[in-house]
Amino acid sequence: MFFHDPPYPHDLLIPNTLANDFADLCDQYGVRGKFSVVPMPCCLGSIDEHLNHVPQQHLTEFLKIVRDRIAPRFDITPEILTHLTAYRLKRGGFHHIYEDEWVAQASVDEIADYIALALEILRDVGLPANGVTSPWKAGERNESDYAQAIGKAQWRVHQRSLTWYFLHCLGDKPPRSSSITHRNRETHQVVVSIPATTNDPFWDTQRPMSNNGPAARTAAISGVDALLSADGKSGKIPEIIAQNCPVTILTHWQSLYSDGTCAGLYGLEQLLGRLRQLHGDNLVWATCNELAQQAKDAG
Predict the structure, then answer these.
(1) Mean of pLDDT over the chain
(2) How far is the CA of 30 from the CAs of 22, 25, 65, 88, 229, in angstroms?
(3) pLDDT for residue 64
(4) Where are the beta strands (DSSP E) in 5-136?
(5) What are the CA-CA distances from residue 167 to residues 33, 52, 65, 93, 267 (Å)?
(6) 250, 254, 279, 249: which is closest to 264 by C-alpha?
(7) Can you tell me the distance from the alpha carbon of 71 to that of 19, in angstroms, rounded to the nearest whole number?
(8) Going by DSSP bridges, is the β-strand pair 33-36/131-133 parallel, antiparallel, or unpaired?
(9) What is the CB-side half-sphere exposure of residue 32 using CA atoms within 13 A?
């Protein structure tokens, strides 16, 4: 957010205590899912080497926490390479357009090369990725090519016969389940699209929507209520369950940090508590790769 929302004050570095606190919460509630790690975050460098403006100890500690405490429960994905302006593969440096705009006009082979680099960087820091997360709506305008490119990149780097991507955020739209978007007849590889079926409930805990801790916590609880009321009778989650679709909750690292108040992480804890209280043993957490396998088995 320091780079994406410059009119407002956001920290350049999020303390690694957030990563540990998040891992603690996931351990406590048995949470599983997917976790994005940007390989060349905001064009500052590459996480397998060094990042400008980021102490090496900070980067090393973050990657260790992700490897040791988060990756055992979560699929790891790139989001794609920089989550800012697109990297020039052949001569280095950066284009003057964001990644989503670059993907929209790139060929299948160019996109595959780009995603392969992201996968290689994550592999080299001990975080092999079995899927891909899109920055913004990258791939939405040429999704068929995008899905094919993801498959090619995953086959090249990891020889994966099943892979998936996280692109569509349905929010207030009707929910839908994961679906196969590409099949490779030669390798029998399958690529699956996994949509988010909720909005980010904690986005408004950040500036400028919330300028202090109490306001941020109020925003967090409002987000929880929008997903699941205290009595479990209303909210987006009961609507999704009624449609017999997986509940895929989307949030962001900066939404959990909430500009230092960690109100989003507080809200996540309240949501997890409600889910456990209301659904008990009927609540089953799954990774995105497991959802992709279900889609493959179904069709």
Answers:
(1) 97
(2) 12, 8, 17, 40, 21
(3) 98
(4) 33-36, 74-77, 85-87, 94-98, 131-133
(5) 15, 29, 26, 26, 24
(6) 254
(7) 12
(8) unpaired
(9) 13
Mean pLDDT of 173-181: 95
Position 299 scores a pLDDT of 81
- CA distances to 166, 243, 287 from 246, in Å: 14, 9, 11
Contacts 24+ apart (CB under 8 A), 204-211: 205/255, 205/258, 205/259, 205/261, 205/263, 205/264, 205/267, 206/1, 206/10, 206/254, 206/255, 206/258, 206/259, 207/5, 207/8, 207/9, 207/10, 207/259, 208/8, 210/258, 210/259, 210/261, 210/263
Q: Distance from first CA to last CA of the chain, Å, rounded?
A: 39
How far lies 111's CA from each of 60, 83, 107, 125, in Å? 29, 14, 6, 22
Residue with tokens 């790690």: 37
Q: Which two tokens stand for residue 227?
A: 């997903």
- 166, containing H or E segment: strand 162-166
- Domain boundaries along the sequence of the chain: 17-298
Burial class (CB in 10 A: 0-12, 13-18, 19+), 151: buried
The pair of three-digit structure tokens given for residue 246, joined into one six-digit string: 């997986």
**Cis peptide preceding 195, ω within 30 of 0:** no
Distance (Å, rounded) from C-alpha 268 to C-alpha 253? Answer: 12
Its pTM stands at 0.96
In one-letter notation, the amino acid at residue 282 is N
CATH of domain 17-298: 3.20.20.370
Cα(163)–Cα(154) distance, integer angstroms:
7
Picking from 227, 237, 212, the residue whose alpha carbon sits closest to that of residue 270 is 227
3-class secondary-structure state, position 155: helix
Kindly state the tokens that stand for 159. Answer: 């020889």
C-alpha to C-alpha distance for 30 and 286, rounded to whole angstroms = 10
Q: What pLDDT, on the 0 to 100 scale, is given for residue 184? A: 96
Q: What is the DSSP string of 44-61?
A: SB-TTS-BTTS-HHHHHH
